[in-house]
Specification:
It is built from 5 helices and 8 strands; from the N terminus they run H-H-E-E-E-E-H-E-E-E-H-H-E. It is of the alpha/beta class and 178 residues long. 37% of the residues are buried.
Amino acid sequence: MAQVAFYGSRLLVLLAGWQIAAANGFSENQIKAAYLYNFAKFVEWPAEALPSDANLKLCVVGADALDGALHDFEGRKAGEHVMTVETHGFSDPSLTGCHMVFIGNSEAGRFVSLLKALANSPVLTLSDISDFAEKGGGIGLRFLDNKVVFEVNLESINNAGLRLPGQLLNIASYVYGR
């Protein structure tokens, strides 16, 4: 229990730190990318989907998603895993081999079909499309009142076999399916 409290408080500090960073000249896209990186540290995947010695694969779908800021995390450690970042096309069948899929705004008109294709796969879906979490995406990022906030679709997370720490759910601006 103490370990969970430690990780939860560490998570709050990390995410709160990115709110402060907005005032220090980081772009909205850089802050959103940092949120994704921090989510990668705290989300738990089933052991068979992400063995302890495996790289964590972040796949990016969409033209210029977050202005390429996600590629800055290539090779960085997220927990015990090294992140790899790959760009994929919308209909790429290999997306089910990703651990995280970020869907850029250019895919706003067709992201729901991508979510259906990834349903029940151990993949954390993320986006900054405005109604992403509401329509079944795992975590949706929004820029609201001059800060980045996030929404969680708990049903989507559970169907993917993923686990989010309670502290993460507590600081979400909205949790669907609670």
